[in-house]
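Postdoc handover notes: sequence design on the structure in folder B. Input tokens:
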């Protein structure tokens, strides 16, 4: 595991960040990737689909193109910013899909990203089952809703929460970057407050570590964000480390 950490200024707030990716204890290949662009306020994680040919290539291709598209900060109002981010994700999907066709590989990836706006608004976008959480007022709030078969059945009332958690189909996702020529991301906007934290993570963390444990970590580790990320990866590995594990934590401070 290699830890990346630092801080940047976002409007009137100091943002401390840390991120790490780890192969876990079972898989040799790490098909996760992360992207940290503090100069443009963009942070992202991607999880290449493990059952396909080249998940590591899919996740790295998607994030490399995202980096190219977000090389300079663009400050737009809320509505325009959402449309702009949707267009960026569409371009990332198209690029990844075209590269998939060129290679002749059956590859795709999840994507979860956060983009800080100029007017205090933060955008969270995702495709697949990589997640974004917000720690606010001593409460863990899941911002994203998995694009997965099990989650759709749960939302339709066909499965209970406990059935969804135990389902052997819980890793079957219904949307992925690069799987089809087009993809529809889910995008949410919200306003952060001082003291908030954001967690972006792949399912290598959330399939091994419960939301209750994640909340305990965020509550107990208030200042050292790097140590917090290391603790989350450690908990996932201690629980078995069945998948690759990637986490980024952002702490909003005055």
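Designed sequence:
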């Amino acid at each position: 595991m290699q830890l990346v950490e630092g801080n940047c200024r976002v409007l009137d707030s100091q943002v401390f960040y840390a991120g790490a990716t780890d192969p876990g204890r079972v898989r040799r290949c790490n098909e996760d990737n992360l992207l940290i662009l503090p100069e443009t306020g963009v942070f992202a994680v991607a999880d290449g689909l493990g059952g396909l040919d080249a998940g590591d290539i899919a996740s790295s291709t998607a994030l490399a193109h995202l980096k190219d598209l977000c090389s300079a900060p663009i400050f737009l109002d809320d509505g325009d910013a959402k449309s702009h981010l949707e267009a960026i994700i569409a371009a990332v999907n198209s690029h990844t899909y075209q590269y998939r066709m060129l290679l002749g590989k059956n590859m795709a990836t999840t994507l979860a990203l956060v983009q800080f706006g100029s007017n205090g608004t933060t955008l969270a976008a995702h495709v697949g089952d990589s997640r974004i959480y917000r720690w606010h007022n001593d409460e863990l709030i899941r911002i994203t809703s998995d694009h997965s078969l099990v989650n759709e059945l749960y939302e339709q009332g066909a499965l209970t929460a406990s059935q969804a958690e135990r389902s052997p189909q819980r890793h079957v996702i219904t949307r992925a970057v690069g799987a089809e020529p087009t993809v529809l991301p889910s995008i949410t906007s919200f306003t952060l407050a001082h003291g908030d934290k954001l967690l972006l993570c792949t399912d290598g963390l959330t399939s091994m570590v419960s939301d209750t444990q994640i909340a305990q970590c965020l509550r107990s580790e208030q200042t050292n964000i790097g140590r917090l990320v290391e603790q989350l990866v450690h908990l996932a590995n201690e629980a078995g480390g069945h998948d690759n594990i990637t986490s980024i934590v952002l702490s909003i401070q005055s």
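Context for whoever picks this up: The two ends are 30 Å apart (CA to CA). Don't rerun without checking with the PI first.
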